Amino acid sequence: MVYLDHAATTPLDGRVLQAMTPYLTEIYGNASSQHSYGRRAANAVTVARDKIAGIMGVSPSELYFTSGGTEAGNTALKGVCAALRGRGRHVVLSALEHPALISAANDMREYGYEITLVNPAENGIVSAESVAGAIRPDTVFVGVMAANNEVGTIQPIKDIYAACRERKVFLYCDCVQTAGVLPFGLFPADGIGFSAHKFYGPKGFGGLYVRGNCRFERLISGGEQERGLRGGTTYVAGAVGCARALEIAEREAQSNNENIRRLRDLFVKRVLAEIEGTRVNGDLQNRLPSNANISFDGCDGEQILFALDLAGIAVSTGSACSSGAVTPSRVLTSMGLDEGRVKSAVRFTFGRGNTLQEVDYVTVKIKEAVERIRAQKY
Q1: What per-residue confidence (pLDDT) applies to 378?
Q2: Could you tell me the pLDDT band of residue 328, with boundaries at 50, 70 and 90?
């Protein structure tokens, strides 16, 4: 098998599993319990929180553990809207946002909120000017992701945050795709979400940073976990694994990014040179090192995906969380691309374990699939 869907999830690093294993076996206490078993678990959670906060450059008291990016985004948006409902009922999101945040915003329509979506340019970049232009006096929340999960474009968050700060509006930045790849400091915001399984950590664990003086209300009621703002038994092994995975990812980011970018660039160069009617979607420079979103004229992206799957190659046609949707990619459509280009797009995302031999194999199999599909249509 050749795995080229690292934007959807990454395999668990063996070093991370090793760190987690004691907390799945002998150190199994509930971190909320007062006895020694619980104290050992609670101490592990504290150490993990401190480590992650240190990497992010934030205070541990500003970091809340969640089940992942979806919960982080929902908590930020709904929590801020609930806390500030007396000030206004308007939300601004980039049209590139993950389906989870778009859905969370749509939920708020039932409570009288209006939602404005800001489209990117054709290169997949959302300008600070367009975000600023969408902010109104009653805007309480702005959401712009650090890098898009479909086309990999990196957004000018520093400029967007400056515009939000000037207007005293909360900015949430989905860093699910950039955590462990690019420094958190590149994406200043009032709220940041991340998910461990995107940087070779465990599935089902992530975090939400909220700047200390920002108001938000809890999404999950229950016990007093996460300082009373996120009820539920703490996933101790997940916290330990997330911290270890982020630590490894940050330390090895430069070398990993260089290797992954080299493979991605070679792959794109070969596909564009060897297969007619191919185009890369999204900005060619301001993008994640792993991402290659390519359209194949005269083809359907789903057909290519299935053909490659039969050849033992895993790729995607968009967000894993919106798979099964029959509508064209909202992200590519928002960029103003024509219907044919949108429907023929396939996302290839590289990771640590990919090789030059795999690039050769995948290129050959794509050529075969595209030729076969085009021959059937014409």
Answers
A1: 60
A2: confident
Measured between its terminal Cα atoms, the distance across the chain in Å is 31
- Residue 128 tokens read as 């600070």
Per DSSP, helices labelled H in the chain are 14-20, 36-56, 69-83, 99-107, 128-134, 157-166, 236-274, 301-310, 330-334, 339-343, 356-377
Instruction: Please tell me which residue in 81, 175, 299, 321 is annotated as part of the active site.
Output: 321
189-221 confidence digits (pLDDT tens): 999 999 999 999 999 999 999 999 999 999 999
Instruction: Count Cβ neighbours within 10 Å for each residue of 65-85 and write b for 16 or more, e otherwise.
Output: bbbbbbbbbbbbbbbbbbebe
Q: In this structure, which amino acid lies at residue 124? A: G
Distance CA 38, CA 98 (A): 36
- Predicted confidence (pLDDT) at residue 331 exceeds the cutoff of 70: yes
Q: Specify whether 81 is catalytic.
A: no
Report the predicted TM-score, pTM, of the whole model to 2 decimal places: 0.95
